[in-house]
Amino acid sequence: MPTTTTKSAFWAGIRDSAPFIFVAGPFAMLFGVLATEAGLSIFEVMSFSLVVIAGAAQFTALQLMREEAPTVIVLISALAVNLRVAMYSAALTPYLGRAPLWKRAIAAYLLVDQSYALSHAKFESEPALTLQQRLAYYFGTCALVMVIWFGCSYLGAALGTSLPQDLPLDFALPIAFLSMVAPMLRTLPHLIAAAVAIVVSLIAVNIPYSLGLIVAGLAGMMAGAQAELVMQRRQT
Amino acid sequence: MMDPSAIDKGTLWFIIFGLGMGSFLLRFTFLGFVGDRPLPAWLLRHLRYTAVAILPALVGPLVVFSGEGGSTDPTRLIAAAVTATVGVWTKNVLAAIGSGTATLFALLYLVG
Q1: In terms of pTM, does the model score above 0.90?
Q2: Which of A109-113, A177-181, B15-19 has the lowest mean pLDDT?
Q3: Which of A105, A109, A197 faces B53 most closely, judged by CB atoms?
Q4: What are the angstrom distances between the C-alpha of B80 and each of A109, A221, B20, B83?
Q5: Domain assignments of chain A as residue spans, ordered by start
């Protein structure tokens, strides 16, 4: 259905993002629960979710802080997990790059998997959209998901300490990570990158300052990039 | 679960704001500064695999050394395998998390 007005573009964004509340909601809640378990106050949990808005990066930081990794390693690892948003930013620039700086700044702050995926697909399939309509659609895809994100973070934090003690919460984080990363393994190079990263992480587990994680991550990235090159050469 | 007092408050706030600022810069780089100037192909090729390398590298030791004193706990290993397999297979985050959690609870109940 072609989008006609700015207002309807905003609502289309909200409508299209509705299914994602079932992804953002549980992760936000889980973060609230686990962060509270790790000793963070509700105020700290909410600040974390409000300032960072990135599920995987927040979980990474939380896990490494619990392992008492050096602050630099916590920051590097969590930002590396979040590097993909830089690529989203690059992909959206041709469509939103001419907006005023303050609007681009707000758009950047709200840039997450969902807002990128929906908006990029929409802008590509409907090139006739004006800049105003594109911005309206983009902010529409953010609005609902953000309300859910903050709301469920709060819910999880409030719930955190009142959960029964015998729940296997120690393993909630690995399961959350695996369920986030597994659907990203779309191609053989992705699988190779993940496999190499796991093997190296197990070998490098005793390297001090949690540097094993960085070593394993770099090894996985290099393996994925190499695999992609090899496959390209075979195809041509 | 670790001692809740393990996370130092000063460090925590430093990490919250460092991460917030870093994440914003990552998101703003292109929209704000770079415009549509292209990045070198080799860099993009490596960047494509950051998340699928870092996350598994973080999870690997957590799964394999999940038992008492760093031993391997078969129930957690199996639950992790089910989560990953269902996730890769269905590409559905919720199906993966649901099946993994169900497996873990079922195994913990059976083993007692």
Answers
A1: no
A2: A177-181
A3: A197
A4: 33, 22, 30, 5
A5: 6-160, 185-235
Domain-wise residue ranges, chain B: 7-36, 38-112
Which of A93-97, B4-8, B104-108 is predicted most confidently?
B104-108
Q: What residues of chain B lie within 8 A of the CB of A224, using their CB?
A: 46, 48-49, 52-53
Cβ contact (<8 Å) for A201 and B61? yes
Examine the pLDDT at B2 and tell me if it is beyond 50: no
Residue A210 pLDDT grade (very low, low, confident, very high; cuts 50, 70, 90): confident
**Letter string b/e over residues B30-40, b meaning 16 or more CB atoms within 10 A of that residue's CB:** bbbebeeeeee
Q: Is B50 on the interface with A (CB under 8 A)?
A: yes
Find the closest chain B residue to A186 by CA distance.
Answer: B88
Q: Is the pLDDT of residue B41 over 90?
A: no
- A72 in contact with chain B, both atoms CB, cutoff 8 A: no
Rounded Cα distance, A158 and A166, in Å: 18
Cβ of A38 within 8 Å of Cβ of B6? The answer is yes
> Which residue in B has a C-alpha nearest to residue A22's C-alpha?
B94
Q: Is the pLDDT of residue A32 over 90?
A: yes
Using the CB atoms, write b or e for A64-84: b if 16+ within 10 Å: bbbeebebebbbbbbbbbbbb
- Does the CB of A45 have a partner CB in chain B at under 8 Å? no
ipTM comes to 0.83
- Cα–Cα distance, B75 to A236 (Å, whole number): 45
Whether residue A111 is predicted with pLDDT greater than 50 in this model: the reply is yes
Contact B49/A at CB under 8 A = yes
* CA dist., res. A12 & res. A28, Å (int): 24
The tokens 């990203």 sit on which residue?
A184
CB contact under 8 A, A220 and B76: no
Nearest Cβ partner for B93 among A39, A82, A183: A183
